[in-house]
Amino acid sequence: MIRCIRHIAGFTLLLLVALLVNAARVQLFEAETYTGNPANRRTFVERYGQPRGAVLVAGRPVTGSRDSGGRLRFERTYTDGPLYAPVTGYSSQVYGTSLIERAEDGILSGTDERLTAFPWWDDLTRAHRAGGSVATTIRPEMQRAAFHGLGRRKGAVVAIEPRTGRILALASTPSYDPNELSGNGTSVGAAWRRLNDDTDRPMLNRALRETYPPGSAFKVVTAAAALDNGTVTDIDASTDAPDPYRLPGTGIRLRNTASGCAHATLKDAFRVSCNTVFARLGTAVGLRGMVDTAQKFGFNDRRLRIPSAVAPSNFDTRMTPAQVALSAIGQYNTTATPLQMAMVAAAVANNGALTPPRLVDRVTDADGNPLFAVRHRRARQAMGPATARRLQEMMVDVVEHGSGRQAAIKGVTVGGKTGTAQHGVHNQGTPYAWFISWARAKNRAQPAVAVAVVVEDAAADRADISGGGSAAPIARAVMRAGLR
Amino acid sequence: MTATATATPARPADTPPPLPLCTQRRGIELALLVAAVLISVCGYLAVGLAKTHAVPSGAAAYGAGLGGLALLAHLAIRFRAPYADPLLLPIAVLLNGLGLVVIFRLDLETPGDAAAPTQLIWSTVGVALFTAVVLLLRDHRVLQRYAYVCAALALLLMVTPILFPAVNGAKIWIRIAGFSIQPGEFAKVLITVFFAAYLAGNRGALAHTGRTLGFLRLPTGRLLGPIVTIWLLSVAVLVLERDLGTSLLFFGVFVALLYVATGRTGWVAVGLLLAGGGAAAVGALEPHVHSRVEDWLHPFAGIAAGEGPGQLAQSLFAFANGGMFGTGLGQGHAYLIGFAMKSDFILATFGEELGLAGLTALFLLYALLVARGYRAALGLHDPFGSLLALGLATLPAIQVFVIAGGVMGLIPLTGMAMPFLAQGGSSVVTNWIIIALLLRLSDRARAPRPEVSELPVPAVRAESVPPEAGR
Hints:
Chain B: Keywords: Cell shape, Membrane, Transmembrane, Transmembrane helix. Chain B: InterPro entries: FtsW/RodA (IPR001182). Chain B: It comes from Streptomyces halobius. The complex is a heterodimer of chains A (484) and B (471). Chain A is an alpha+beta fold and 484 residues long. Chain A contains 16 helices and 17 strands. The longest helix of chain A is centred in the N-terminal third of the chain and has 28 residues, at 2-29. Residues 1-9 and 457-471 of chain B have low confidence and may be disordered. The A-B interface holds A 1-9, 12-13, 15-16, 18-20, 22-24, 26-28, 30-35, 37-42, 45, 71, 124, 126 and B 256, 259-261, 263, 300, 303, 308-309, 313, 316-317, 319-325, 327-328, 333, 335-336, 351, 355-356, 359-360, 363, 367, 370-371, 374, 377-378, 383, 386, 390, 394, 397-398, 400-401, 404-405, 408-410, 470-471.
């Protein structure tokens, strides 16, 4: 009997061992699989269990936290939500995050390993790391000028500090209030559906995620290609472009809205925006030369991050000469984000050197200690310095004597280029008004700011839409704010 | 207070030497009890501090209540079972206390449903019954006489819930005046008593008579008949009520006792074969069980089907979140477990908030409890006592394995209560009775062997228990 009792005891011991081994399997060896399961709500609950770190503009937070007392406890709040929505994005319990909220989520939510000195100790003690803050490069007065300049029209503004690539303003209209998407009440779902069903697409970040045909504003790139390739050596010498210009290999005759384009000089053609001259220059430079220069400015770059992803701007790499001619005046398949066109203006202003744009200045922990240096990418030469200086001269000419007069600021050197891009079937869509420019205080060597403005205004009379009329005043207001 | 050898009067020179010194160790028991109550109160405070950042208002009352119960039980033991095993009561108090802490902690997640006060009332009832058993049951062998009464009572208790409506698919509850009672819980003690008594009475015949069939010697039907009938009846009732955990429990205890009583390995083989075949058949045919088996095999099937995580998946998530040291009491996300989080799935909260370390400690507490039961079984000299101690200790052993294995994905889930830990009045009361009986048995096992001259035991009883019987 004693032997049998011992056997039973031994069997019970086996059961105990099985339980312990299984417990170790579930809690240690397979724990990561279970924790990482997307259906495991614990991740979300812990994520919202503490206030989220702040997004700073000029040292002041534009975001806050509200304790909802619910399961997903802390909800995001935004001050000046519509104004900064294209910068911050939203952070929603239901719909996730976007833009900086998404790109810097690890820092803001406190999950980033870099927030702690001893990660293994925190893992052991399950210490919750408080969310760090993200300082943006935005200057509030410029952001306001851009936002109010656009007003009720659809469009976008990007302003860049040419030398550093810091994005000073990033506006997109119509905007939305990310406060509406915070939390997880029924109103959040309603707001989400309303914003998504809106035909004006207020949640679309037009500055980063929408590409437009750049129209005549692209002539800056074509001129740079022509000068860098030696196709044009003297901007004051006559080009051999006839008016109208027959696209090579086709019977299509390209005309101008401006007069005096036949055999105009590059500088004159740039000032009055002659399609014929630039279309012909494009074919003269050739596909390879045009693609090369466009890509140096950042076209066709799928990897651009600021740190949010930016929609790639397009310049086709396989085209017939006629398509190259149309692409050279910013039509055909050529499309660009407002950020891309701001980069073009910035590269010209910065003597040909293009610094990749960025929106984040500094990342700190919850106490404000800098965590690590934000990796500043080095400038690359988009064109030769001599080419850049001649382009600056031509762009100043546009503002002083050409279509960009509304951008002029007294006592400041301003260079610009207008664009009125046609689109739609048979060009029946409302044209987009472009203006790209840069400004430099007279007593400074460095340009202060480069700006790109696009206005897509279906309500406006077609005749009123032109880069000089609609977009240039906005660019002027932003540049003035930047020079202050 | 410790190490008091029995002060026996002077013996005649020809009597055998005294047995090894038997110690009472009641002081150790008291010290362990104080520790158990302190640990529970600390857990209670930890929950309050974590959830509301304040000392919970009922802390003093909770500590006093638990301490009072422990003291009452301790005094009863001092008075009537001075040689009882000093570990049993502290372990029971600690498990009961921890259960109250975790239930209190889960109450904070479910504002409409406070189970801890009810559980405390049931614990009080349990300790009262414990005290009654310790005080009134002077000799466990009395129970042997009531074997068939126990069997009849157990069957009656198990049949009663059929008359009451089903709760969550199982007809195992009786609802009276807002209290729900699970009579099957009491039945398991009664059935164990019956098994032990019947097998103790017939073990010689069971082991040595009957025909040989291959390696197995089958006892005659007349011998095996009654016990198999009652066992089959109870299992049939349980299957009818869909209480599969308890039927498994009865089966396990039956096989274990049969094996120990007859000493024949063949019974274990037959038992395992029967269990395997029965489980496979029920798992394939019965839809309720079949779904449990499916859940066990594919705990994340619900997620893949877009229905969200099932309960087993939620339980595994909770355990995984606990990791090595747990999130700390009150700092897990127990409400995600949802249904039955205070009863069947209470272990998931325990594992999440106290981690593998806490869970191991808990399993070891149960193991210690079971081991002390087996220790008593080894020390007893009457077959009935041995078998009863073995059966009573095996009950929590199988129960812990079945429920812990179920909620952790080791075996298919069968609804059962974690002894002492889970919410459930009948369960707590029954477990206290089991502890009382084990204490009584261990007291007898550890007490100095009474000498015939000192024994005021009726002659007939002494005759039925020859010393060293069956060894």
